[in-house]
Amino acid sequence: MNRTLIGYRNLMNMTQTEMGQVIERSKQSYCRRENGTQEFKQSEMLKILEKINEKFPLMTMLELFTKE
Description:
434 Repressor (Amino-terminal Domain)
């Protein structure tokens, strides 16, 4: 489970469905990735980082996707 990603998604007032749309995946597919049962592709991580950087420009890929 990526608690950092969940936290930032919530700070941006985004649902899993909305974040799934960012990476062009269904809510279920996004949920599996966020919960750690499936890995994010690098292209998906970049899209998510770009979205989060709109509000939090100092966030890095390493900080956002490091496993806990």
